[in-house]
Amino acid sequence: MESLWKLVYLLEPAPVTLITTAVAVTFASAFRALNYGKEMERNRDLSEASITLDRSQALMIPVMSSFSLLLMFYLFSSVSQLLTAFTAVASASSLYFCLSPYVAYLKSQFGLADPFVSRCCSKSFTRIQGLLLISCSVVVAAWLVSGHWILNNLLGISICIAFVSHVRLPNIKICAMLLLCLFVYDIFWVFFSERFFGANVMVSVATQQASNPVHTVANSLSLPGLQLITKKLELPVKIVFPRNLLGGVVPGESATDFMMLGLGDMGNLLPYFCRSSEN
């Protein structure tokens, strides 16, 4: 009875917000993926950017994820700045992908003129697309400077939606097989990895902070305002909310404690949901 009573903490603001956000992201990702699938049917160039997994590729996802997890567990400090730079690029492109349909809708609703202004990588860019790309880059730059958890969540959600939209599964059988493999993957790395590696690999990787390359460059150049740039960053591979979301600190806990949920925990059911909705 006492253990059940402890579940009351789920009714506190931070857990409720975390759960609500996770559910909202799940449905938003599925909705965007289905709409993007319809766009790919009309535009062959978009279909070339997506990846349809066969059985062997689906089986390799947990294997490669395990390898990446171990790599970050042992070598995170060595590759953290490179990982941060790669994540920044992926975050900007993902945020652009998520916002572009809404920008296109507003453009059509208000009849805005949108001439082509340049070409990049054999593709033409309109003026509004260029402004959107700049805006997304500014958001990523703000995250690199401040490391704020709200920006971290925004970029993490964008990456989740973009990943689900671009990775396609051809049938229910492969979906079920992938979900089973990911279930075993999660169970092992969360609950049993400590027996083999001396520490909880999943939690250790998820809670590590990466070195901020912006701070490193600013420090080497002795740029003004260095104290405003965060030294460490939470990578947007999870959504986080402070336990004292409304300002009250829980007794015995630090004001900087966060609740977190990995993007993979939200994404595991998305392939099946998307595929089932298509059928």
UniProtKB/TrEMBL annotation:
The chain crosses the membrane at residues 16-37, 58-76, 82-104, 125-144, 174-192. It is found in: Endomembrane system. The keyword Transmembrane applies. One of its GO terms (cellular component) is lumenal side of endoplasmic reticulum membrane. It is a multi-pass membrane protein. Keywords: Hydrolase, Membrane, Protease, Transmembrane, Transmembrane helix. SMART domains: PSN. GO terms for biological process: membrane protein proteolysis; signal peptide processing. GO terms for molecular function: aspartic endopeptidase activity, intramembrane cleaving. Its main location: membrane. The keyword Transmembrane helix applies. Belongs to the peptidase A22B family. This is Signal peptide peptidase-like. It comes from Arachis hypogaea.
